[in-house]
Design a protein that fits this description.
mainly alpha; 476 residues; 55% helix
């Protein structure tokens, strides 16, 4: 958590040849230059190793933020809307034609997904804003990874990282919601599934679910305690036992229920995207939203159990933990222990160690939506409370089915904000009045044939051969 998006790449496009301006001749040229810089940065970002892409996200974000105001100015000029109290006259000589690489469409592993061609400035604007939203989600993911990968952060640094990640996710939510409204205004449906109304609505709900869970994570001590117990280099247990502060368990539980509702809505919307005649959304993000819903509801059951245990109802708390196991799709603790014999237990240990290695290396971690982490926390609490109940309290553990049936509704903590396209300032608009230099060329980025994406072969996919490069053969 959050989801590991792949940023799309795009083909070159020259605005100055298709959208000239009589009042501000330099505006289309400046927009072309900034788009070309963005295109080159996206290509370089894609060619980086998975572990190295995080370091270039801020560069991608800066290039996107530089380009969006100029693209919005072109859109306002076509719509005859003023920019910084100044009218911009844009002449539509022909519809812009551009292609973007779809990164959410279902594909066969090892096959390169072809670009999706679209017409009109709406197609370009929606894809650029979608890329910006995915960049914000990836920046939030980088902040959360810093919490899991480092054990030396202070409490202030952890709160700052979680708050920063939350802000990125809320910004992504507002961008996806803006795209939904923009797509609804287009007369003909856009070609790419990435920017369809159902997909963008799903991504908006997903970002809101992840931001809601971060509000809980900020004050949830149990995942850190479980991670500390699994750290082989930790020696704090020799000095004192980990302190578990009292939490607002009932409030956190209702927040988790709301997060589960948003994740469930995202999963349903992604499923509706697959009902058309074309290709649907890839399986990875569909599984992620399904697992995120399960882990959110299991987390809610855990907090309801903590609330009951704090009130002296240990038996009811254990029943809530069993309900959490049910939500995760796991069997009860007794059934699980009787089943885990021999190779089954070895396989479970291997899965946990593999996920820990992914977090250490910064690769594709968190694809299970936090299921494994929540299962560890529930297992820790279940062992502790069962031991207490067997030796001290001796309360009857009720059935968990009535508890799940009477689970309260969710509670929202954030009000999604409305995204407003950034506007060029007055000084920049004045500078765009400058006439074009007829002797100067226009940079639109590297040659599209040099992208090497159409002929790209992933050598780490089973059944493919590594790229050995060009070689000469000699027969004797």
């Amino acid at each position: 958590m959050p989801y590991a998006f792949t940023l799309p790449t795009t083909s070159p496009l020259a605005f100055s040849s298709i959208l000239p301006s009589n009042t501000h001749p330099s505006l289309p040229l400046e927009a072309t230059i900034r788009r070309s810089v963005l295109r080159d940065i996206l290509k370089k970002h894609k060619r980086l190793e998975q572990q190295s892409r995080t370091s270039s996200l801020l560069i991608v974000l800066s290039a996107l933020c530089d380009f969006v105001p100029f693209l919005a100015a072109l859109d306002s000029g076509l719509s005859e809307k003023p920019v910084s109290n100044e009218e911009i006259d844009i002449v539509l000589q022909r519809e812009p034609e551009v292609s973007w690489r779809s990164t959410l469409v279902a594909s066969i592993p090892g096959h390169v997904i072809p670009r999706v061609k679209g017409r009109g400035l709406d197609f370009e604007l929606c894809f650029v804003l979608h890329t910006l939203a995915c960049t914000h989600s990836l920046l939030a993911r980088a902040q959360i990874h810093s919490l899991s990968a480092s054990s030396t952060l202070t409490s202030e640094q952890k709160i700052l990282a979680i708050t920063t990640a939350k802000d990125h996710l809320l910004e992504a939510n507002s961008l996806h919601s803006f795209i939904v409204g923009r797509v609804s205004e287009v007369q003909s449906p856009l070609a790419a599934i990435d920017i369809s109304s159902s997909t963008q609505s799903a991504l908006a709900s997903l970002a809101l679910a992840e931001a809601t869970l971060l509000a809980v994570l900020k004050d949830d001590p149990y995942p850190a305690i479980v991670a500390q117990s699994r750290n082989k280099d930790d020696r704090d247990w020799m000095i004192k036992a980990p302190e578990i502060p009292k939490v607002r368990a009932h409030l956190f539980a209702r927040l988790c229920v709301a997060a589960g509702d948003h994740a469930g809505k995202a999963n349903a919307l992604l499923g509706s995207s697959n009902s058309g005649k074309g290709k649907g959304v890839n399986e990875g993000i569909q599984k992620y939203t399904k697992y995120l819903r399960k882990s959110s509801r299991a987390k809610a059951c855990r907090f309801f159990g903590i609330d009951a245990e704090l009130g002296g109802k240990t038996g009811e708390g254990i029943a809530w933990l069993s309900a959490g196991r049910k939500e995760l799709g796991l069997k009860s603790n007794v059934e699980e222990l009787s089943r885990l014999n021999g190779f089954s237990k070895l396989k479970l240990d291997w899965v946990e160690k593999r996920e820990d290695k992914k977090i250490e290396k910064g690769g594709a971690w968190g694809s299970d939506g936090g299921k494994l982490e929540e299962a560890r926390v529930i297992d820790m609490l279940e062992k502790k409370w069962n031991k207490m109940n067997d030796t001290i309290d001796t309360q009857i553990v009720p059935s968990y089915e009535p508890l799940l049936a009477s689970m309260p509704s969710g509670r929202e903590i954030y009000t999604p904000k409305i995204y407003v396209l950034p506007c060029l300032d007055e000084d920049t608009v004045v500078r765009m009045r400058a006439p074009l230099d007829s002797t100067a060329g226009t940079y639109i980025g590297g040659d599209d044939s040099s992208d090497e994406e159409e002929s790209e072969v992933k050598s780490d996919i089973p059944g493919t051969f590594p790229d050995l490069g060009p070689s000469e053969s000699t027969y004797f």
